Amino acid sequence: MFDELFNNLKDFAGSKLKEVVGELEKRLAIPEPAEPFTRIYKFQITDPTVTKGAIAVSGETLQIEAYKDENQNFFNSTESLRNVILFEVPEPNLQECVLACQFYARAVNSEKPINVSLGLSKKGQLTSTKGWVTGISVTDDFCFYEIRAHFKKETNPMNIQISVKFESPGILLIRDIELLQAPVKVG
Asked: Rounded to the nearest 5 degrees, what angle is found at the Cα of 31, between the Cα atoms of 153 and 183?
């Protein structure tokens, strides 16, 4: 009798958990674009970056570096070594759209992947970013990357941020950064 009750409870909890996970996946899913993407911005390597320091132009590429300072003991597994906001632009005029950030990148001398994210930050708040991320692992050549995000206009204006997060020392080479948008496919 106890085994039967336990199994029924376990089955009930499992089905409820599946429902919750399914609902969460729906809310976090990025919808399909209804049309091809159109370019909002094409960032030039000479455009000023939001974060300054250890960012250089190398040919047609931005070179972003992060080093661990041996004199500082604050670095642990729960903190990132360096967060860099490359570019920040105003939100699109559309009420709802799919955003895409496309670029070529290469990681050098890094133990862990270097994360590039496309996020939203509310004006007047200290980088309250809701981001979508892709990890760039060490490679010998540049690879193409695309990060997509679902944007819905809120009452408080937001900015779109393209940022880089280093978990270990390393160098990120990045070029041909574009921000695109497309209307959301309905149904």
From this structure: 55
pLDDT tens over the chain, length 187 residues: 667 766 776 666 666 555 544 454 444 578 888 889 999 999 998 999 999 888 999 999 999 988 876 554 444 444 567 888 999 999 888 888 899 999 999 999 888 888 898 888 776 554 444 557 888 888 889 999 999 988 888 777 888 889 998 888 889 999 999 999 999 887 6
* Number of other CB atoms surrounding residue 88 within 10 Å: 16
Q: Which tokens sit at 14?
A: 């499992």
